[in-house]
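Objective 1.3, modelling of assemblies. Example input:
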Amino acid sequence: MKKSILKFIPFFIMASFLVTGCNQGTKSTSTAAKPAVSTEAKKDQGLVYKGSVKGKSNKAKSISIVVGKGKEAKTVMVKFDDNTKGVENADPGHASIIFYEMRDGQPWATVIKPKLAKLPEGVTEIKTEELQSLIESKADFVLIDARPGKRYAASHLPGAINLGTEEYKAQAADVLPKDKNKLLIMYCGGPT
Amino acid sequence: MSTKVAGSAKKDGYKNVRVYLEGQPAWIKAGSLVYASKGNISKGNIVLIDLRTKEKSEAGRIARSVTIPYETLEDRLEDIPKKAPIVLYSDSAEEAADAVEDLRDEGYKKVALVAGNYAGWLKAGGATVTGPVVTEITWKRILGEGEVGKADFLKAANGTDPNAIILDVRTTDEASEGGFTNAIAVPLDQIGSRLADIPKDRKVYVHCTTGARAEMAAEELNKNGYKAFFLVADVKCEGNDCKIDD
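Predicted structure (tokens):
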């Protein structure tokens, strides 16, 4: 028993690094073994914040971003100006990487990039158009909404069934098809 | 998390696993339809709208429906709260889809359908009612955990509740354009270093311009032993004249 758990630990750790996951629309309660988000990049990139953008005020030209996870999580404010590249990539609810410099003791964004979710090995991405045509043509596949049940209940894609991350272990066997060759398509609330 | 579930399924031996990374927001942005589940239609805090004619609605409709025939939808927009989750049904898939598009164009962000429309509901064995139609919308937003309601917030803002204070966590730039009379202004990013400026012996009602920063500030304060609550509402101030739109 103990052995089998140990066997999976590397997988979980790896998964927690690989997966940046989805916007769950709730506070991050992840306890995954992610490294504390570094506010200082090594090498030559200078200073960087990585995390979920909480708010953006064009009027105040400032972005609030949550860095760190769980109890380590804290919010920092970064200013931006007309020279900041990629301001549009800072989208509330989505993950961003903000490179910044210190001016008068305050962080100013220089370049903002979206932080993209990484797919597990062997899993490919599907885009809106292709999914639309699969649904319209009533193709044979299972569409899975991986968000918490409450969000699924409020609204979900046509024909989707609910199997959240937390429920996977308990419900996967009942919810997923017996045929392992069947196409499964997972979605959630978009990339963080 | 879709990628996590995809990884688990892959590990369980599923060979064809794909992820729609952009997820539901992109789906809605593309103008596609989404559906509410039966439980949410029966019991959720939603505005459920029957788009069919008054006569059809009288003869049988989903319990809790408000009857707004599609032709009259435009005239009733003012009565439909923007922040409410809206669930629509009709007896025509086309009409229901048109109504979704209309409402989204008007700025409604949460518009879902009943799967299969009224016929689908009957087929699913959902509860129905008959008789005179209901036209009045009584929806109220339910306060989430840690929120303060507009009424309580205003009592603190105008000084009639001596047990609570207002904390403004907008940036200095934003706050310079106006704010509540008795508010203490500490920008969100300075909360941690300026706790001494915020009294601990009273409740703290936090606001920003929407509620997002206020929530983070309240969380930070509660970690530090405060009793803080946040206001989820659009706040606009000119001088000491502040408008709260919840």
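Residues 150-245 of chain B form a domain with the Oxidized Rhodanese; domain 1 fold (CATH 3.40.250.10).
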